[in-house]
Amino acid sequence: MPKYRAQSLRNSDFLSVLLTDTTPVEVPLFFSNDGIYHWVRAHLKDLKKASLPGSKLLEDFIDKLLDPDSKLKNRVSRPYQYSVRLSPVKDRKLALPHPRNQIRWVEMYKHRHLLMVHYCQRSSWSLRAPKKAGSRTFVENSNQNIHKLKLAAAGVDLDSEHFLCRHPTSFFAYTGYSRLHKFFESEEFLGLERRYPVLWMLDISNCFGSIYTHSVSWAMKSKDVVKKHIDASENTFGGELDREMRNANWAETHGILVGPELCRIFAEIILQDVDTRTAKFLEKSMNHLSGRFVVRRYVDDYFIFAANEVIAAEVALVVAAELENYHLSINSKKTTKLAWPFITERSAAIARLKGPLEAFLDNISMRASDGADPGADVGMLSNDEAADLRAEVKEPSPKFAYIPKDIRNIKRLKAAFLKEIRAVCRGSEDGYGLVTGYLLHALSNRLSRMCEVESVSVEDASKYMDSILLLVELMFFLYAVSPTVEHSARLARSILLSLLFLERAGLRDEKLVVEEEVFRLATAFLRESAEVRPAMQSAGLETLNIIILVGQLGTEFEIPWHILTRWVVPKDGLLSKLDYFSLITLARYCGGRKGYEDGVQKVEQAIAARLCACSKEDLKASSELTHLVLDALSCPHFSKVFRQKLLKDTVHKLETRKARANAEWSGAVQWLESHPWFSDWQDVSLFRSLERRQRTSVY
Fold first, then answer.
1. What is the longest distance spanned by two Cα atoms in the chain?
2. What is the β-pairing status of strands 198-203 and 336-339?
């Protein structure tokens, strides 16, 4: 079985921050910062050296739009805000910062990353905090033989450094737990439960939205010191971090952006100070409680383990009082109080489903061969490096491949398993959302392991098709009842992996059947989502990602333009009201398809209308418009006439009109098409994005 390989990262490559820490994890399947990373790292230098027509034009254009050299220290930008689904009745608003601000954050990481670590290592209560700048990333070779075939066919150099290092998940290496459920399953939690019979779980109300940006300086120097030396504090790290957050959030001081990892670090610095102040107060003023409680915190959730309810209440009051000093408060409606045994509704549900899940998986597949999990390749590392590597590898490669069994009664097996799920979720406020993430993870893992075999006999072809169809149908059902962006990425990766596996195995007829079923399930979801969507609202990210998935199917399975717009566009039918993610999704789906030329033109017109309606100040400040313009300019599906006019109109908004030769405009457009920004416009980039998401946590 192939092993993980540890690939060293150059410590000087602080631009990797753009790949890990400056954007939300929950974005469309096509979106990544790979393009801007390469633009800032190399393409801008190439432009300065280039002699092709349009190179000077592009250099000036990008300089004015992005200000990559950070000439304007206090330029304020408006983030692109969008909503994602948390549950059937609850959304969360995320923010995509302006590329200009993201580039400025790189400079801050370069000069201040040691201070970031310092201010995030003061509390013993924190369950997840930056420990040091990461020095390695890990390439998981398992499950990637099919993906490599796809990459090789597209002409990608599989030995290139970019391919080997394509899975960075964060600039920093972290202490603690990557996900909260890992804490609940840990030996540490077991030990705390053994010692303390009471557990209180407290949630900070609207934590990121309530943070006062100036308070990050208080966390570093104390509020009194900062108030006495306000001017001087502007030149400290706290002042810089405060300023960068405000500039990226339209100069807001109340609330910080939600999504980028930097914002999580911003909150962590403040909450670490709350932790240490609370701990000192309890030690000095309430020493009668010594040894009778322990506190842990994961991001904005506090966990108080105590000898009894009275002690837990006393500690909770002190935590709440210290939070108030930062204008933060506890959400009493979310406070959970447990006594032995410590198990939440979600944990209990998962425990009840483990048996039925294992039985179901055993009924559809069996282990292909025995073998030990090789884990990580640590032979060439020092003891310290090997320890760090083991700690940082989030998901070890699978131990075994699986092959399908002959399923006698698929309908009965499916119905019995769904009945078990319904029984567990019945009566819960979260409904199926109680276990959807757990089940999707388990089903997708089994599907991945079934796609590891090297060859498939003719006799086994129908077994593979039946098992894949069953797993895909169950995964689509779970997604439909609890759609989230994270779930859509897992669903898409599993389906595309199975289709490539069938293609590689030469099972083209079976692949066609699976594609047909995927198309049926996907279009049913899209139709039902459109029916319940408010009239003036466009499709959400959970819907757009399924459209992107359908776009990967064969040409036999296409959504007509008039139906596609019905499922995406608000009921008034105006494409010009669509946001950046929606317009680019439509462009990706329609581009290169016969019969969709009119649709592509309508998307072009909508983008042109958005640009025409904005002012020079809006264009410079808006993250959404900047992302939209840059992606549109590099889109090969749009006509060169449109892209050249779009570039002219954008340049003329940013600067006084200059007489330029037509060769400059056409040369610039040609260069942009071969150097994409946030959408790579190639199918192979979608796989890279999906693989990265498999190793990235959503918080």
1. 81
2. antiparallel
Residues 582/606, Cβ–Cβ less than 8 Å: no
CA distance 513 to 525: 19
Instruction: Tell me the Ramachandran region of residue 375: left when phi exceeds 0, alpha when psi lies from -120 to 50, beta otherwise.
Output: left
Residues 6+ apart with CB under 8 A from 617: none
385: which 2 tokens? 């490096």
Q: What is 592-624 written as a DSSP string?
A: T-TT-HHHHHHHHHHHHHHHHHS-HHHHHHBHH
Rounded-to-integer distance, Cα 577 and Cα 575, Å: 5
Cα(574)–Cα(565) distance, integer angstroms: 10
Tell me the pLDDT tens digit for each residue of 233-261.
899 999 999 999 999 999 999 999 999 99
459-468 mean pLDDT: 96
Per the structure block, which two tokens stand in for 275? 């932790």
Give the confidence band of 698 by pLDDT, cuts at 50, 70, 90. low
- Asked if 375 and 396 touch (Cβ cutoff 8 Å), the reply is yes
Place 368 in a pLDDT band, splitting at 50, 70 and 90: confident
Cα–Cα separations (whole angstroms), residue 381 to 120, 279, 304, 389, 675:
27, 38, 39, 9, 37
Confidence check: pLDDT of 666 > 60: yes
Give CA–CA dist 478/474, Å, rounded.
Answer: 6
**Cβ(221)–Cβ(327) under 8 Å?**
no
Whether the bond between 260 and the residue before it is cis, its omega within 30 degrees of 0, is no
CA distance 287 to 281: 9
Mean pLDDT of the chain: 88
Residues facing residue 415 across a β-bridge? none
Residues 328, 195: Cα–Cα separation, whole Å? 30
**DSSP alpha helices (H): ranges in 505-592?**
508-532, 541-550, 561-568, 580-590
pLDDT on residue 51: 75
3-state helix, strand, coil in the chain (%, to 5): 60, 10, 30
Residue 73: pLDDT band with limits 50, 70, 90: low
- Are 498 and 514 in contact by the 8 Å Cβ rule? The answer is yes
Handedness of CA 151, 153, 154, 160 (dihedral sign): positive
Structural contact between residues 484 and 440, judged by C-beta atoms closer than 8 angstroms: no
Which of 57, 254, 75, 94 is closest to 617 using CA atoms?
A: 75
CB neighbour list of residue 413: distance below 8 Å, 6 or more residues apart: 360, 363, 364, 407, 470
Closest-CA residue to 629 (of 653, 645, 656, 611): 611
Specify whether the CB–CB gap between 272 and 119 falls below 8 A.
yes
pLDDT digits (tens, 9 = 90+) for 555-600: 999 999 999 999 999 987 789 999 999 999 999 999 999 999 999 9
Q: Per DSSP, what are the bridge partners of residue 202? A: 302
Angle at 521 between CA 515 and CA 527, to 5 degrees: 130
pLDDT tens, residue by residue, 522-559: 999 999 999 999 888 899 999 999 999 999 999 999 99
266 exposure class (CB count in 10 Å sphere: 0-12, 13-18, 19+): buried
